[in-house]
Amino acid sequence: MMTLIIGGSGSGKSAFAEDYIVSLSKEKKKYYIATMQVYDEEGEKKMERHRTLRSGKDFSTIEQTVDLKKSTEKMEAGDRTALLECISNLTANEMFAGEVPETEEVVTEKIVKEIETLNKEVTHLVIVSNNVFEDGQVYDKTTMAYIRAMGRINEMLADMADEVVEVVVGIPLVIKSKNA
């Protein structure tokens, strides 16, 4: 089963996603797949905040900033759940890993394919992503390619997901439900 949790920056989506997967996991092994690369003090503070949020929740953390398919190699066999945090970091990491940015089409295809594979390997996959295109701004060509890739990935993941939840000011709003 796959759940996509989306929201704006600071919406509470990460805290909701962590609590959500903990409630689903029961006795299953829980993995937190962290995609953020830290470049500065602000990034370090954000990462530390996320570590604090998940402390005491019995997650095994897998640092996987690119090549999501490798994350399953780091998991124990058996009944397991995974929280992927988050698509925006993964997309940026994949797109800007080389000297020349990868195309939005290649990045979108790679990420979606790797998530399909990961979803088959775990009992429940919860994915956190950011809303895009909400500020109405037009950016430079490269940034717009990244935003389009994010939008397409979100769209494809929402289609694949059994559940989609948008978190707005800490309030979860069910967009798609497996019970519908």
Descriptive account of the structure:
With 180 residues, this protein is α/β, with parallel strands linked by helices. The protein has one domain: 3-Layer(aba) Sandwich (Rossmann fold), CATH 3.40.50.300. The protein has 5 helices and 7 strands, in the order E-H-E-H-E-E-H-H-E-H-E-E. The protein has a 7-stranded mixed beta sheet with strand order 3-2-4-5-1-6-7, sandwiched between helices. A hairpin with a 2-residue loop joins strand 6 and strand 7. Helix 3 crosses helix 4, helix 3 packs across helix 5 and helix 4 runs parallel beside helix 5. It is globular. It starts with a strand and ends with a strand. The mean pLDDT is 92.
Short key terms for the protein model shown above:
single chain; 180 residues; Rossmann fold
How many separate structural domains? Answer: 1
Radius of gyration: 16 Å
- What class do helices, strands and sheet pairing give? alpha/beta
Largest sheet: 7 strands, mixed
The overall pLDDT, averaged over residues, is 92
- Number of extended strands: 7
H/E element order:
EHEHEEHHEHEE
Question: Helical segment tally?
Answer: 5
What does the overall shape look like?
A: globular
CATH class bucket: Alpha Beta
How much β-strand is present in the residues? 15-25%
Provide the spatial order of strands within the biggest beta sheet: 3-2-4-5-1-6-7
CATH architecture: 3-Layer(aba) Sandwich
CATH superfamily: P-loop containing nucleotide triphosphate hydrolases
* Low-pLDDT windows of residues: none
Q: Which percent bin holds the helix content?
A: 40-55%
CATH domain fold name: Rossmann fold
Q: What is the first-to-last residue Cα distance?
A: 15 Å
